[in-house]
Design goal:
The protein is α+β, with helices and mostly antiparallel strands. The protein folds into 3 domains: 99 residues, Immunoglobulin-like, CATH 2.60.40; 112 residues; 159 residues, Glutaredoxin, CATH 3.40.30. It has 15 helices and 15 strands. The N terminus is likely disordered.
């Protein structure tokens, strides 16, 4: 089980009751013994997403730390012993069949080194993990022999034998320990079985594509999301994190939204479970600066849950703030109509008739490039853009125009940089502008890249590497063939007209 963040929040009891738990005991007495325990204060806690909820504390003396309470209970669940000096967990243990037991461990916290008295649930858990530790080491050794031709055949037989041994071990373990919480968690969070052949009536002949979709659709089948107590297990966090930011990572916003709904709607009746998911995933979709379209996922889910009244914990102030954020982000989402910017160029004319429109340009595509000459990354990518721009111009194939907005309050410094570096773009900047472009395009800093199509809709709202611009446009036209060979839009026609009259 992975490391998690340490949070010093003392809570003597958790306010939930795990289903199917043994009859609640109004006391607990749990002791840990090890030469690794120094004379210091230790904690026991429970996992909550990637942090801990601290349940109790005890001062260790002479290698023994005892956590004992009367008139207090520990619900059935996964707990962890925490070392505050290193701010990390030492190991996990179970409160299941007993609340009165002793665990003796060595300085490595290895499963093999755990000795338990008074809890068969913990004894069996460590036995199971010890067996798997051994099997992993054995498999590692066999894989090395598989690389050598002279030992390959014998190694494969050993690997097959190991697989059969572990299969028999697990079948026997699950049969004998089916009532243990640990066993239930292992089975609940084990991988689903994906069919190896297309079923009758499948709508595709691509087996791999069908299997990927099957895995996404059935990923949560074994997990009882109505079991509120799962939010205090590391397994639920790991599964949630991997699903949204692993399985769905490369999907488009509409696909992510669709599968997110399938999960969130299953926990909608449990406000704590719903908040567990939303409070983790929403900020990551909102703040992502690298993933195209993830802000659309944030907007969709915020509207569908917070702003539709499905989040009873949300205050009026919270809903108001989220509503403003959604309205703000909605203006710069992929597919939204880009707002026309009309700005003065380096001549800084005060006459609006001399200002240049971001939309009325003859090229099919327009790149809005918000940059700052004081920004190292801006200078580097602006130089790369110039090389690409010049090469396309010389080849007579300038498929996009760069509408470069100087994100710099010192107009003279910006103008000097444009002049000294002979930037060939449409260079605009200064205070002479028709609207607040920072608000219109959600510009929080430089550099920021926005790509507009012929209709001046936003098709990219993330800054990508210069060498990815043309591949992106080719990929865009493959997905949107109607854009590839279309005639000029009204914006292009206006740009062509203006170009001819100047």
């Amino acid at each position: 089980m992975k490391k998690t963040t340490f949070v010093v929040t003392i809570l003597i009891a958790l306010f939930f009751v795990a289903p199917n738990s043994v009859k609640a005991q109004n006391s607990y007495d749990i002791t840990f013994k090890s030469g690794a325990l120094t004379d210091a204060q230790y904690y026991i806690g429970q996992h909550f997403r990637d942090t801990f909820v601290i349940i109790d504390s005890a001062v260790a003396k002479n290698g023994t730390a005892r956590f004992a309470r009367t008139k207090k209970t520990l619900p059935r669940g996964v707990y962890t012993l925490i070392d505050p000096t290193k701010k990390k967990k030492m190991f996990d243990f179970m409160v299941d069949d007993s609340r009165n037991f002793t665990i003796t461990f060595d300085g490595t916290y290895s499963n093999k080194g755990m000795t338990v008295k008074g809890s068969q649930a913990n004894t069996q858990m460590y036995n199971y993990m010890t067996k798997h530790d051994w099997a992993n080491e054995r498999a590692k050794e066999i894989r090395e022999r598989l690389k050598v031709e002279s030992t390959k055949e014998a190694a494969q037989k050993d690997m097959d034998a190991l697989s059969e041994e572990m299969k028999n071990f697990e079948n026997d373990f699950f049969a004998k320990n089916s009532k243990l919480l640990f066993t239930q968690l292992v089975e609940m969070f084990s991988n689903i079985d994906v069919p190896e052949a297309l079923p009758a009536g499948a709508t595709t002949t691509d087996l791999r594509e069908w299997q990927v979709q099957y895995f996404r659709s059935h990923y949560w089948d074994k997990v009882d999301l109505k079991d509120h107590s799962l939010i205090y297990t590391p397994q639920l966090f790991d599964k949630m994190n991997y699903y949204f930011f692993g399985v769905l990572y490369h999907q488009e916003a509409d696909t992510i939204t669709y599968y997110a709904h399938k999960v969130l709607d299953r926990v909608a009746d449990d406000s704590t479970m719903l908040r567990y998911f939303l409070d983790f995933i929403l900020p990551r979709y909102e703040r992502s600066t690298k993933n195209i379209g993830w802000d659309q996922v944030f907007v969709n889910l915020t509207r569908d849950y917070y702003l539709s009244g499905k989040c009873p914990w949300a205050t009026e102030a919270d809903l108001y703030s989220r509503g403003l954020t959604v309205d703000f982000l909605s203006q710069s989402l992929i597919g939204a109509m880009g707002q026309e910017l009309i700005m003065a160029d380096t001549n800084q004319s005060q006459n609006p008739a001399d200002w240049i429109s971001s939309h009325a340009l003859p090229q099919k595509y327009v790149m809005l490039w918000f940059w700052d000459p004081d920004c190292n990354h801006c200078r580097k990518q602006t130089a790369e853009l110039k090389v690409l721009y010049d090469s396309l111009s010389q080849a007579g194939n300038k498929v996009f125009e760069v509408y470069a907005v100087g994100y710099e309050s010192d107009v003279n410094k910006w103008k000097k940089y444009v002049r000294d570096h002979k930037l060939p773009f449409i260079n605009v900047g200064g205070a002479n502008v028709n609207i607040d472009y920072q608000e219109a395009y959600n510009v929080h800093g430089a550099p920021t890249m926005i790509l507009l199509n012929a209709d001046r809709q936003i098709i990219m709202n993330k800054t990508i590497a210069t060498n990815m611009v043309l591949p992106f446009l080719r990929q865009y036209e493959e997905k949107h063939p109607e854009q590839a060979n279309r005639g000029p839009s009204r914006w292009q026609m206006e740009g062509i007209r203006r170009a001819k009259t100047h």
